[in-house]
Write a structure and sequence with these properties.
Length: about 475
């Protein structure tokens, strides 16, 4: 049963949806009645995803049921919608992530880099950044990377070096490494299409507006601003939020001890490593040999199942994967239908006309910054992407922004905007509550690094994509 507070969360989405439905007689003449009715349901659904009277999976299932009962969709369309390749790719990558954590390969990689580069605190930060980068290629959950692998290692290492929030010594080293991990996690989430589930959500929505982007196209556009960010962010934080401990000679011995306790690589780790390398290779060359990114993820998971690295129980335990498979399929189905019914083309054309004469670069800059800072209002990556990405993309394309650039830059923004608040995403909620970084410092540092990331990815990103011929 819903409590009174939950019922109140239904008021706004229901009110907006009903009002939009009732004003159908006054809709623009260029929009059909089914398109307007679906728009009313779509907007109400997005608002409900923000107010959250129910989880997003339940909300979207209710919405698609209403759209079917009212005749906007046929049941065959709805059933086919759950075969969406983008949604399945997200789910498959989540299952791969379970293999990384279960096999222990992620921890082994982290200990190896700490042992190799851990003589100084700044070197440790760069070593951990490299670990994040490697893991982000195949683990599309920033929560899984931070919560399951990176934070436990950073926490143990910091305490080993005498930096412990319970003893009031967090600023010795832990504060710097924890916040650096958060910001680097944002960068690596942006660098790879498979670095964050939200990236694939965005590009799935972009497909409904006839913009298709491959894993390789994303990687080429992100690699230069990504590397620049990985170099600058740890260094800037080292200057504005310096650790008291600068030298860490014991880190090498600590990591070496951890590696010895793990023993030799297990068969599961070796298989996971081979499958991971194979997946990356196929993501890079797949389009040239007729294998798309979703098919690659299926191949990888099938190999992990056959070899026993993961099992069906592991897959069933990945509740986030099944949730996102459901609600993303529904959101994309409605978005595609709005495109087919002509709503998004009308929306793009209308707003594009209003921006006639304004350079598309300035339009993109404004949309990028607005989209970034609106994340202060959203406690979820996927919620904001679901609520705003389609409309921002439609406005950008209507204003003359090259579709590829519009889709890519706004999709990049969908992970960069995590450098805002302490509730911006799961990793922020976890790391900001560990005691290593005060709430005041979290907000201040997020704002500063947020500006740095905007300069690198918006300014440098536009310049780089021009060099490689994306516009």
């Amino acid at each position: 049963m819903l409590d009174k507070f939950q019922w109140k969360k239904w008021i706004l989405p229901l009110a907006v949806g009903i009002i939009l439905w009732l004003v159908t007689p006054f809709k623009p003449a260029a929009i059909s009645v089914p398109a307007w009715h679906l728009f009313a349901i779509f907007i109400a659904t997005i608002i409900a995803c923000v107010t959250k009277p129910l989880p997003m999976m339940a909300t979207t299932l209710i919405a698609i049921t209403i759209a079917t009962v009212t005749g906007i969709f046929k049941m065959k369309e709805v059933a086919a919608g759950f075969g969406n390749p983008t949604a399945w790719m997200v789910a498959m990558c989540m299952f791969m992530a379970a293999g990384f954590i279960k096999s222990g390969l992620g921890k082994r990689i982290a200990y190896f880099f700490v042992k190799t580069f851990g003589k100084r605190t700044l070197g440790l930060a760069y070593a951990l950044s490299l670990v994040e980068t490697v893991l982000a290629i195949g683990i599309p959950s920033n929560n899984a990377r931070v919560n399951g692998i990176m934070y436990p290692i950073i926490d143990n290492l910091s305490k080993e070096m005498g930096s412990d929030p319970k003893k009031g010594t967090q600023r010795e080293m832990g504060s710097y490494l924890v916040f650096n991990e958060y910001e680097v996690n944002i960068v690596t989430s942006t660098m790879f299409l498979t670095g964050l589930a939200g990236n694939m959500v965005a590009l799935g929505i972009a497909k409904t507006q006839n913009v298709n982007i491959s894993w390789m196209q994303w990687f080429l556009a992100a690699i230069v601003p990504g590397i620049i960010s990985l170099i600058l962010v740890p260094f800037i934080l080292y200057k504005i939020y310096p650790p008291k401990i600068k030298e860490t000679p014991n880190a090498h011995a600590w990591a070496d001890k951890k590696l010895k306790s793990l023993g030799k690589m297990t068969a599961a780790e070796e298989i996971m490593l081979v499958v991971f390398v194979l997946a990356v290779a196929l993501w890079l060359v797949g389009p040239k040999i007729g294998i798309d990114a979703t098919e690659v993820s299926f191949i990888a998971v099938a190999l992990l199942l056959i070899t026993g690295v993961i099992n069906v129980k592991d897959m069933l335990n990945q509740s986030f994967a099944w949730n996102i498979l459901t609600w993303l399929s529904v959101i994309m189905l409605m978005s595609q239908k709005l495109m087919t019914l002509g709503f998004f083309p009308w929306f793009s054309k209308t707003l594009g006309s209003a921006l006639h004469g304004v350079s598309w670069i300035w339009v993109l800059v404004i949309l990028f910054l607005v989209y970034f800072y609106l994340h202060y209002l959203f406690p979820s990556v996927s919620t904001q992407i679901s609520a705003l990405y389609a409309r921002f993309l439609s406005v950008a394309i209507g204003a003359g922004v090259p579709p590829l650039m519009a889709a890519l830059m706004l999709a990049f923004d969908g992970s960069l905007y995590l450098s805002t608040s302490s509730y911006s995403a799961g990793p922020a909620a976890l790391l900001s509550s560990t005691g290593y970084v005060s709430n005041k410092d979290w907000w201040k540092l997020s704002a500063i690094i947020g500006i740095v990331l905007n300069i690198i990815w918006l300014g440098g990103g536009l310049l780089w994509t021009k060099i490689i011929g994306y516009w």
